[in-house]
């Protein structure tokens, strides 16, 4: 009968099966015969969690026993994605779980698809934080991640008639098996009120902040498993709770709504993630979020430090606080408040200790992305902190003058921006309150010294350093691309699993026909899988044998999805006018969310979908060109798209992409990159070799020079008839017959200003695409380059990045893996 047909589970699979069944029965409360897929998902997750908790407690006890230094990673975003398969893989239980479930008639892949993505981030910054957490556990860095437990993560993107619409992402609908609520770990967070100054016993000024309102920050802990499950760190996310759930007097007075307003207001702090990934919303709630989690985290780590080490003055030796961009920069003032107002430390000692404890990472040079808050808002919401910021600024300006700073430099160094209605520059506050400030790629860190932090770098030389980003090879190779990981294990052994730089052992196989065949077969299988997703999502049939050309990332003008779609239209026109030519079949895959209020980015999404509608149904191009915009790009969709790519589009205006991390994921999965010399593309070229990457376009210096000289998009358009034809078509409504003027704005903006130099790079970009077509026609040469990319991407493991932070910024040891 049915049951007997099921495969037998042996060894650990058998005991793991029993554990799953026990969880299903006693934790989920479901009889196996009636259990639904979601029930099995929960039971399996709880079973895995048990195995993880044992290692978690062992790690925590070990760290206490060692009494060593901990890293505290402060981030308003953790773009985690799903945790089941990643946890099974890191615990070495993937095969075991698959066998255990099969023995009760359940398919691991089916139930794994039901897990909601923890989308507690916007894009690069948030995903980097998640990769860093996994790598810190892997290389033995005792660490806590601190952030906010948003009830709603990044919005769900729906594409309605080609337009992006947003709907709330309720990731907790089925609960979250990975977190442990810590009701007992709660801190009061104050807002508003006033500061009472009095005189201390030694005549020194004593300040006491009396907040007008208080919110409770309650901890929820999620274990973070490292590779091989050797160490498990903690992600502590704060949830906002109102100290008093209901104001009874209002309720008794019949004002039932009023009775809840205080609570609703308090708890709105952890309601939703701000969906902006480059332009500050500038809203008070955002500042409340930033202070809320920063204060709770600092109170928590100081409590832990005193409990173990008794003496606050040793804090910098036992705690390294890393600020993930300026979002937690208020930490500089908050730690000062704690040290001076609560621990009665002198100003000078407190400032030295703060600076020795904190370091700051900058992730963008976009002027509009650099946070600053109006002084009046800070004075109202955080009056004590504003006092402290003034005092810090006075000290900094004194130091700057002593260092011979000019008035212009003083104005630039100042934390207070006297122009624009007096605002507090959070980047400057983070800089002066840190012992180290780093960029996220070599080019970006240099540009930081030449632009946003030029004067601070002059006054405080040697503080800026570089830490080139990385990605975890567990999620982005082993879990996302088991076909390739399996082929690599068979070919070069397992060493690369513990040290990604051992992938270099693959180089000798780059020209091996047998290996090339197997490598191509893995890629083809991944492409067939993506083709199925495209079919199911868009009803569009694509040929896995075509060149899969992929651009997936947040929608932003500097990332130049517009350059890509305009070149696609030029290709479309060329195929139509020269059908006789031997065109390379291409599938152009796009995906990415636009910030809800970012209109011009939303028009680019619409343009891509308008072009797709035309091209995909045009018999003249047959199967030579397909365009697909996949909705709701997130971590889980990235894990399906990236292993299936032949070509990775990293085409940002040079000088504007701080690093990029998608670029690394594609190359590690055997895609070739077409890109500008921007961010980490530069270091990727240095590692994979200039012959194995397609670099085009202006350099950052040339972009700077052209902008300084004045841009001339009209001349660029006149110089390239193909571009001119494309812009005429788009501008006149060829792709929007129902609304011919729809894309007029996009074309006019390009023709009149083109701040992102799309027209300047179009010709070289298009020419490079044709060179790529030519190489595609010689599979052996293509595959050799793709294999060399995989072989030489090991350095871009976030394990290496974390070792760099540990060595130079945090000053703590790491361990060899495996
Ligand atoms: C205040 C609004 C806001 C929110 C997020 C951000 C982030 C800094 C934007 C971001 O994600 N930056 C990306 O960070 C990645 C990780 O370092 C880099 O690889 C990307 O190049 C960078 O754009 C800026 C401004």
UniProtKB/TrEMBL annotation:
It comes from the Bacteria. GO terms for molecular function: 1,4-alpha-oligoglucan phosphorylase activity. It is an enzyme of class 2 (transferase). Its cofactor is pyridoxal 5'-phosphate. Coiled coil: none annotated. PROSITE patterns: PHOSPHORYLASE. Phosphorylase is an important allosteric enzyme in carbohydrate metabolism. Enzymes from different sources differ in their regulatory mechanisms and in their natural substrates. However, all known phosphorylases share catalytic and structural properties. Allosteric enzyme that catalyzes the rate-limiting step in glycogen catabolism, the phosphorolytic cleavage of glycogen to produce glucose-1-phosphate, and plays a central role in maintaining cellular and organismal glucose homeostasis. Belongs to the glycogen phosphorylase family. This is Alpha-1,4 glucan phosphorylase.
């Amino acid at each position: 009968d049915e049951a007997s047909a099921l495969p037998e589970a042996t060894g650990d699979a058998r005991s793991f099966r029993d554990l799953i069944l026990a969880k299903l029965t006693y934790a989920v409360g479901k009889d196996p015969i009636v259990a639904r897929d979601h029930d099995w998902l929960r039971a399996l997750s709880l079973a895995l969690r048990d195995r993880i908790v044992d290692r978690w407690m062992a790690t925590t006890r070990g760290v206490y026993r060692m009494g060593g230094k901990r890293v505290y990673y402060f981030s308003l975003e953790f773009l985690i994605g799903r945790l089941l398969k990643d946890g099974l893989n890191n615990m070495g239980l993937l095969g075991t779980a698959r066998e255990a479930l099969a023995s009760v008639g359940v398919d691991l892949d089916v139930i794994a698809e039901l897990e909601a993505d923890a989308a507690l981030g916007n894009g690069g910054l948030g995903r980097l934080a998640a990769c860093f957490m996994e790598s810190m556990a892997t290389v033995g860095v005792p660490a806590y991640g601190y952030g906010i437990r948003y009830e709603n993560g990044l919005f769900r993107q729906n594409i309605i008639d080609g337009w992006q619409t947003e709907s709330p992402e309720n990731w907790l609908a089925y609960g979250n098996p990975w977190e442990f609520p810590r009701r007992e770990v709660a801190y009061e967070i104050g807002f508003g009120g006033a500061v009472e100054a009095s005189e201390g016993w030694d005549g020194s000024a004593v300040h006491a902040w009396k907040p007008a309102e208080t919110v409770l920050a309650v901890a929820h802990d999620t274990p973070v498993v490292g590779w091989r499950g050797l160490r498990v760190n903690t992600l502590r996310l704060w949830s906002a709770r109102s100290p008093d759930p209901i104001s009874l007097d209002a309720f008794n007075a019949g004002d039932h709504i009023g009775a809840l307003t205080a609570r609703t207001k308090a708890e709105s702090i952890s309601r939703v993630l701000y969906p902006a990934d480059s332009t500050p919303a500038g809203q008070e709630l955002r500042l409340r979020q930033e202070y809320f989690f920063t204060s709770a985290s600092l109170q928590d780590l100081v409590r832990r430090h005193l409990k173990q080490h008794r003496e606050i003055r040793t804090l910098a030796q036992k705690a390294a606080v890393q600020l993930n961009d300026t979002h937690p920069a208020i930490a500089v003032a908050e730690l000062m408040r704690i040290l001076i107002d609560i621990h009665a430390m002198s100003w000078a000692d407190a400032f030295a200790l703060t600076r020795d404890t904190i370091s700051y990472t900058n992730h963008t040079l976009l002027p509009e992305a650099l946070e600053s808050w109006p002084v009046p808002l800070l004075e109202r919401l955080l009056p004590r902190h504003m006092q402290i910021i003034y005092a810090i600024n006075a000290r900094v300006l004194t130091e700057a003058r002593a260092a011979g700073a000019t008035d212009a430099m003083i104005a630039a160094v100042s934390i207070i921006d006297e122009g624009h209605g007096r605002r507090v520059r959070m980047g400057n506050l983070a800089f002066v309150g840190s012992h180290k400030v780093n960029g996220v790629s070599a080019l970006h860190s240099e540009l930081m010294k030449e632009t946003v932090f030029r004067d601070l770098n002059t006054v405080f030389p040697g503080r800026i350093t570089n830490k080139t980003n990385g990605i975890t090879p567990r999620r982005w190779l082993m879990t996302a691309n088991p076909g390739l990981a399996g082929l690599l294990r068979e070919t070069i052994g397992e060493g690369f699993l513990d040290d990604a730089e051992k992938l270099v052992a693959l180089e000798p196989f780059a020209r091996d026909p047998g290996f090339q065949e197997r490598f191509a077969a893995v890629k083809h299988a991944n492409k067939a899988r993506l083709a199925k997703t495209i079919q199911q999502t868009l009803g569009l049939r694509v040929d896995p044998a075509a060149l899969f050309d992929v651009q997936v990332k947040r929608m932003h003008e500097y990332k130049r999805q517009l350059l890509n779609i305009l070149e696609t239209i030029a290709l479309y026109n060329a195929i139509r006018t020269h059908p006789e030519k031997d065109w390379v079949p291409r599938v152009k895959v796009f995906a990415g969310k636009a910030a809800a209020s970012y209109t011009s980015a939303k028009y680019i999404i619409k343009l891509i979908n308008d072009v797709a509608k035309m091209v995909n149904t045009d018999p003249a191009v047959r199967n030579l060109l397909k365009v697909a915009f996949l909705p709701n790009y997130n971590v889980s969709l990235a894990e399906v798209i990236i292993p299936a790519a032949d070509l990775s589009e990293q085409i940002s205006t040079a000088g504007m992409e701080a690093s990029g991390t998608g670029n690394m994921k594609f190359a590690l999965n055997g895609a070739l990159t077409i890109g500008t010399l921007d961010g980490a593309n530069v270091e990727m070229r240095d590692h994979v070799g200039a012959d194995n990457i397609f670099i085009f376009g202006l350099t950052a210096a040339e972009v700077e020079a052209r902008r300084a000289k004045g841009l001339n998009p009209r001349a660029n358009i006149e110089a390239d008839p193909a571009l001119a034809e494309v812009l005429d078509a788009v501008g006149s409504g060829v792709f929007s017959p129902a609304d011919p003027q729809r894309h007029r704005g996009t074309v006019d903006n390009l023709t009149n200003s083109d701040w992102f130099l799309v027209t300047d790079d179009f010709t070289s970009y298009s020419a490079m695409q044709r060179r790529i077509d030519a190489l595609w026609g010689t599979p052996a040469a293509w595959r050799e380059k793709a294999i060399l990319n995989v072989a030489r991407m090991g350095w871009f493991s976030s394990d290496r990045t974390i070792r760099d932070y540990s060595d130079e910024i945090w000053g703590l040891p790491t361990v060899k893996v495996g």
